[in-house]
Amino acid sequence: MVVKFYLIMGLQLITCRYATNQILPDGSAVIIGGRRQFNYEFYPKSTATLSTLPFRFLSDTKDPNENNLYPFVHLNIDGNLFVFSNNRSVLLDYKKNRIMRTFPPMVGGEPRNYPSSGSSVLLPLKPPYTEAEVLVCGGAPFASYAQAKNNGTFIPALTTCGRLKITDTSPSWSMETMPNPRVMGDMLLLPTGKDVLIINGAGSGTAGWELAQDPAYTPVIYRPEAPAGSRFELQTSATTPRLYHSSAILLRDGRILVGGSNPHIYYNFSNVQYPTDLSLEAFSPEYLSASNSNLRPKIVTASPIELSYDKQFSLHFSVGLVDTTGVSVNMVLPAFCTHSFSMNQRLLILQISKVTTLPDGTYEVAVVAPPSVVLAPPGYYMVFVVNSGIPSEGIWAHIQ
Ligand SMILES: *[C@@H]1O[C@H](CO)[C@@H](O)[C@H](O)[C@H]1NC(C)=O
Ligand SMILES: *[C@@H]1O[C@H](CO)[C@@H](O)[C@H](O)[C@H]1NC(C)=O
Ligand SMILES: *[C@@H]1O[C@H](CO)[C@@H](O)[C@H](O)[C@H]1NC(C)=O
Q: Which keywords accompany this UniProt record (predicted)?
């Protein structure tokens, strides 16, 4: 029995290496792609899906090493999976193992996935939740990997982002240019619901051992709703290179925890250009500055809260200066980040019914929980009250 258990665990580990995971509406997970794995499977396994299911799109879009590592996967609002690999994307009905739609290749045709690692987010979902849009930023030109590996030439990373409304009947990529080239950047949805942070990575080369140069020290915020041409804003530069195997996640207090960097096979702390770095630091977006403290709400409701789909709930908060028409409540699924992609990341802007001033001068906001398991798979989320663009600390919410 023990031996058998080990065998199963062993096989599963091999199958899962460098795959992308996505939580599904029924609470299970789908595991897509990975090292020489042009397929997907489910966890936990059900009798209907004991083995892997073939996914030819992944072999059609494989990388120069015959792999397809960490494709960008987003659960669309119609329940299908948006899967982006290199320069192409499809909508997959994972239950029927059928491609429902093939999207146009991204303009320019440059690869965006490992080792040309760009990153991607599903932009915040807004009531009435009829549209979903994907953003892919950065990456490296096709020749970058071979040039860095075989010739020691580090080609500048891509400067472009592509944006695609995947719910449109005939969508097309809309391309925009970042202020800086970036490969191996991490993309995070900030709790304001209006900002995408792009942080970490390099200005030239690709993912892999010793294959990148020019650390991208300067984070940038992208504002999807700002007028075209004024969406990017450079942030304060960091001083630590965060190259291959660095990571970034949103914390409950609104900061971004940034850590790691190791572009070597071993831990090399000296005698190398970019030493292994095990440090952690936090990036504080402008909304955390002291000058915003009067606008910053504080949720008084005790954490965690239990939510039911499509049911109203209320949050009690205090704040110095409120604009009751400028209050929003945003729910963020905490992501798992590796190799520049934050899996499961999604942000829902919730439907607010009203904001009431209480006799003691605090406030109550009545909110509708996400209407469906497709929009918000069951589990734990961070919930933020945002006032005039300034988010509170989040509290935990459980929905099932
Ligand atoms: C997408 O990438 C493949 C493989 O590198 C390449 O052959 C193809 O031309 C690219 N597509 C476009 C539209 O440029
Ligand atoms: C190698 O890099 C040099 C520049 O450093 C470039 O001129 C040359 O074309 C590259 N070689 C190949 C085979 O691409
Ligand atoms: C990195 O560390 C490994 C293991 O200690 C060592 O063999 C290797 O020479 C080091 N590399 C460099 C460039 O110092």
A: Signal
